[in-house]
Amino acid sequence: CRVLVLISGNGSNLQAIIDGCDDNLQAEVIGVISNKPDAYGLIRAHQSEIDTSCVIAHKGETRVEYDARLKVAIDRYQPDLIVLAGFMRILSDEFVQGFEGKMINIHPSLLPKYTGLHTHQRAIDAKDEEHGASVHFVTPELDSGPVILQAKVPVYEEDTADTLALRVHEQEHAIYPLVVKWFSQNRLAMTNGKAVLDGVE
Ligand code: GRF
């Protein structure tokens, strides 16, 4: 399974997936694309001898124009799976539809709770007892595609957004490589808008 990872920043999830693929002979990270030239994840990719590309937004460019250039960059890698790992751009409907069932994202909340940004602070403000992360198939509506796997963490009274984010991140690094593994083993698909694992919704 040819895995292409899209990032914008630190790339700790990218690292977890690279490390996971070392033990998973069915999947290989064949490329990393960033929209930010200074993303630390690009250094991680170089350290693992993985090819990288940057697709930087031009001034005044529309979303559809950017996504068309992104699609060209993606198609160059002929990926079987596109993994969004902290890729901080909203993608146009048309772009997303072109990769239906082949693109996954990780979001730092227990979806459907807290789509969008500042999820850790929102969980604290709401006095939630638990919080977590979700891996889901990407569909046109932001952070709303079918959930594949979630991990929960407790929220403590003394938590700040940063301490809570750290706890969630640890879980992200466990569940994201696992989902990539399932996909690479052909155990996972999106069927009729639902995530199906081993034939079970
Ligand atoms: C993670 O918190 C992920 O849930 C969100 O973006 C962050 C990326 O972190 N989508 P990293 O770049 O993988 O360290």
Automatic annotation (TrEMBL):
Residues 2-180 form the Formyl transferase N-terminal domain. (6R)-10-formyltetrahydrofolate binds at R63, M88, R89, I90, L91, N105. N(1)-(5-phospho-beta-D-ribosyl)glycinamide binds at G11, S12, N13. Pathway: Purine metabolism; IMP biosynthesis via de novo pathway; N(2)-formyl-N(1)-(5-phospho-D-ribosyl)glycinamide from N(1)-(5-phospho-D-ribosyl)glycinamide (10-formyl THF route): step 1/1. It catalyses: N(1)-(5-phospho-beta-D-ribosyl)glycinamide + (6R)-10-formyltetrahydrofolate = N(2)-formyl-N(1)-(5-phospho-beta-D-ribosyl)glycinamide + (6S)-5,6,7,8-tetrahydrofolate + H(+). It holds the Pfam family Formyl_trans_N. PANTHER family: PHOSPHORIBOSYLGLYCINAMIDE FORMYLTRANSFERASE (PTHR43369:SF2). This is Phosphoribosylglycinamide formyltransferase.
